[in-house]
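Backbones bend. We report:
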Amino acid sequence: GGSTLIGISNGLENLSGVFIAIGICFLGFGAYQYWKLKHQKNNDAILLSTISCPECSYETEETMPTDACQFFYECKNCKNILKPKIGDCCVYCSFGTVACPPIQLGEDCC
């Protein structure tokens, strides 16, 4: 009885390197899947938004930044400086046709 368990234990001990390698592979695969998911989400965001000036109603299509929120925007027509409305995180959420990428992806804005 007991000698069988010792034999199994010795056999498993000889395979410990294999178990460690398998564990490292699983950790690496998980890290890759997490990285892939984070980068895939950024590709799903719409980056073009038409921003409208509340002063002169001038509209222009802009590419939104993916790495920062834009708090200020100067109208190309009347030079009015736009700021986010209360409760919005950026000028695109307030004056654009499309919300900023973090909001689109269900994340917190800057």
